[in-house]
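Check these lines:
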Amino acid sequence: MTLFMNFGIFYYHSDNLVNLVNNINENFVDHSDNGLEDITMQSSAKLSDKLVVYWTVSLIASCLLSAVQPLIIGERTLPVPGWLPYDYTRSPLYELSYAWQTLCQINLAIIYASSDMIYPCMTILIGQQFKILSSNFKNHFYHAILQCGVPKQVVLDFRDNLHQVELSQLWERFQTVFDVTKWNRFRRVNLDYFKRNITHHQRLLIYCEDLDRVMSLFLLTKVVAAFCNVTFIGFSLITTGNSALIMGLCSYVFFASTELFVYTYAGQILTQNADFLWSLYESPWYLCDVPFQKLFLMVQLRKSKVVYTRAGNYFAMTAPMFISFMRSAFSYVALLNELVKSDRV
């Protein structure tokens, strides 16, 4: 049911989702260009690819686990019990029905995994863009010096010894490293590069707002479904007396919890990478001119806003929220267990 709800939500937001993906493909930068740190999108691409492969294989393994269960208990039952208009316990109807249900489960697992990984992959990619932007903001001062012809090794030595001397000595060292006659060029290059990074940051904030708007209802359905699965299946796990069902119930609880963790941690990656306020302070902004420092303060005020995605405008997708979900789920399991015991008494 959740799979069909996901398709309905994606169909409703299909135009916005396609526009968001196209804008990301057209406007994302491949690597940092500050000249000191080389941060690329390859690491995030590899991480998202591995996440998709691992999650798809895990869901297929979960489906195969329920398919192997009838073979383990030695009964002629189907992986998905239900009414059929024929006697499926006879051969070859049982073998054909068994193979067909197993194939359908594997197909649904692949489709389910594909829809599951849209949000985590997009948060990983956007988060890597924030990491590239953080590096450019942190090294904007040194980038401007490099563009003025100062050797890279001299700039690195200046950066490494930046916090080991007083401000007056630092300014004298800066004048010896940097030719004063190139000061106007330095100011222009530094300001233009900083403004370009501001434009990049504004674009990323727009993408985060679009992602929140497109995925809000989808995340709400996934969170509610995973929470209910953990609660009620966990309750069934501790109250069932059928040992044959324990393996299947454990797998359902595990993958529902893992799914909830993947979504909350994906949102945590985006929130954590977007919070690069301290990276701004790591740059020697106090050595720049007054107009640049005023612009720096404006960027600081704008950067104080926390970036996160929400599930239905109710739950912020962060790692602490996962702990709150699991704590609430286990509390409901304990409450249901006590209610059942009191009714039996």
Summary: The mean pLDDT is 81. The longest strand covers residues 310-311. DSSP finds 13 helices and two strands in the chain.
